[in-house]
C-alpha cells in the first residue's frame, strides 16, 4: 500500500460520506456529526440520492458527482451496494476508503464472495481500504473523527488499532473517563486490505505517536508482521493483546515438537523476538499505555519506594523481588539527608517508611533527596489515607519535586473515596497513580525490560556450512518411495550433510552383521530397530542399550526384530542400527521445529524425557535464529540449572547445543517442504553432544 494513500486515509483534505443521513441514530448521520463535532477543517461531502442538506452541509446526489482524486470516502450503505460504490470511487481515482458496512466474510459464504470482490477492486485501483465491518478511524491531530462511535478522545501521543470494534468503543469510553489522549484510533474490522502490519508500518514514522497499542485476533501474514514490528520496536513501544490463540483443527503431529508447538507458542515467539510487549488483559493495556506515554524509560532496574505505611511498603518490596527490578540501595549521602529531615522512627532504607503521621512536607523533603540519588533508577510513591495524610497537597508535592527529573515516577494512593482527588491531580499532571502497588511495579518492570530490548546489540545471524545437494537427495528418495516420514536410519545422510555430531552408526540387516558392526564400533553399543514405518521405537521395545558382548548383540537383534514384526505387522523391518553408547554423564535434550502456517518454522528446545513429556518445560523461537536467540532459549527453561551443573557436576557444552539449534534453524530455512523435524534425544555432557535420534516429517502435497 502506497504511503500517499495511507496519508490520505489519516489526513484527508476532503471526506465523502457514502450513505450520509439526516436521521439521528443512523450510521451515516453519526459519521457526519462526528466530523463536525471533532472540528474537522477539510471539506465534508455527504452523499445521498435524496439531495438537500444534512447538518447544514449541501448533499451530493451521487458518487459520480464527487470531485476526482478524492482523498477519503466513508461507506455506510447496505452491503449489496458496496461493491458498485467502491467501483465508482475507484474510477474517480479515490485514494482511500473506509468501509464501515458489515455483512462480509463474517456472515458466511456470500459475504466472503463480496469481500473478495472488494479486495480485487482495491488492488486494481490501488485504493487503501480500511474494513469492512469496522467502526472507522479517528485522527485527533486534524480533528478527523470518521467513526460512528460516541465521543472523540482528547489529543495525545497514544495510537490504538483493534480488530474488535466493541473493544474500540470500550477503550474510547475509558479514554474519555480518564482524560487519556490519543493520536490515532483505528478499527481494523475484517482487514480485507489494510491490516495490523500496515498500521505498524505507518505509525513507526508518525511524529504524533509515541506509544502503539493493538488488539488482534489473528495475523494473516505472520512473517511480514514480525518483520515490520522488529523495525518499529527499537523506536516506539508496541503493546498488544492477542486473543484466540488455540490451534483447533491443526495437523496431527508425529513428534513431541509437533504436539507442543501450537499457535499460542508461535505468537509468543513472534512477539518475543519482535520486541512486542504482550499483555493478557485490557487493564494492563491501560496501565502500560499511561506509563509509556507519560514517563521516561528507567536507566536501570533499581526501584526506590517511599511510603507512609510499613505494611504496603513491604508488599511493594515483595512484588519487586519477584520481578526483573531490584530494590535500590540508598546511598550514604541520601541516608544522611533523610536522617536530618525525618523522625527518629522512620526507616531510612528501602522501602523508605516516613511513618503514618507524614504530611505533604515530609513527602516533599524525602522525594527531594531520593530523586537526586544516582543509585535510584525509578520511584514509587505510596500513600495510605491516614488521619495526618494531606492527600491533595502530597500529590502536588510529588508533581513539583519530580517534574523533569528524568526518572520514571509512579504513585500508589491506596483506598478509594478519600484519595480520589489526589489521584486525579496526579493523572492530570501525567503521573500514573494506582490503587495497589502490583500494577505500578509491573508497569515499571515492563518499561525496564523494553529499555533493555531497545538498547541490546543487533542480533547476529549465522549461516552454517552444509551440503544441500546431499540433504536434498534424502528428501527426494523418501518422496520417491511414497514416504512422508523419514526416520533415523534413513536420515543419517541428512545429519551428515549438516555436519551434525552423531554417534558412530551402522545399519545391520542380520544378527551376524550386527555383531561385526559392534566389533568395529567397540563395546558397549546400542541397538535400535530400523523401519521406515516405526518412528516411536520405544513403543515396540525397539531399543537396547549397554550391550557388552557378541552374545548380547545377537540376542538383542533377534528379540528386537521379532518383537517389532509381531507388534507392527504393517511395518517393513530393514534390520537394526548399531550405535556407539552416549558420552558418559550425558543429559538428554530435545531440539525440533514445526512449521506454523502464519509465522513459518517454530524452533523448540527443552530437556528430554519426563521434562518434555510431563512438565512441558520448553522454549520457542521463530527461525531464523540469531546467536542470542539460541543462547536465550537454553537459559529460558526452568530446568536450566540442571544443565549448568548441580552438586559439583560440570556444566554441559552449551556451545555445541547452540550450534545444533542454529543448524536446525538452517535446515528449516533450507527446506520449506519439511513440515516438522526433531532431534530427540540430543545427548550432551561437558565435552560435547551427539544427535542420538532424528525424525523428519514432510509437508503433504508439497
UniProtKB/TrEMBL annotation:
Keyword ATP-binding tagged: yes
GO terms of molecular function: acetate-CoA ligase (ADP-forming) activity; ATP binding; metal ion binding
Gene3D superfamilies for the chain: ATP-grasp fold, A domain, ATP-grasp fold, B domain, NAD(P)-binding Rossmann-like Domain, Succinyl-CoA synthetase domains
Record's keyword terms, sorted: ATP-binding, Ligase, Nucleotide-binding
A Pfam family this chain is assigned to: CoA_binding_2
InterPro entries found in the cross-reference section: AcCoA-synth-alpha (IPR014089), Acyl-CoA_Synth/Transferase (IPR051538), ATP-grasp (IPR011761), ATP_grasp_subdomain_1 (IPR013815), CoA-bd (IPR003781), Ligase_CoA_dom (IPR043938), NAD(P)-bd_dom_sf (IPR036291), Succ_CoA_lig_flav_dom (IPR032875)
ATP-grasp domain span: 492-528
Superkingdom in the source lineage: Bacteria
Entry keyword annotation includes Methyltransferase: no
SMART domains: CoA_binding
UniProt xrefs under PANTHER family: 3-HYDROXYPROPIONATE--COA LIGASE [ADP-FORMING], ACETATE--COA LIGASE [ADP-FORMING]
NCBIfam families: AcCoA-syn-alpha
Family, per entry: In the N-terminal section; belongs to the acetate CoA ligase alpha subunit family.
Entry protein name: CoA-binding domain protein
Native species: Desulfovibrio ferrophilus
UniProt lineage: Bacteria, Pseudomonadati, Thermodesulfobacteriota, Desulfovibrionia, Desulfovibrionales
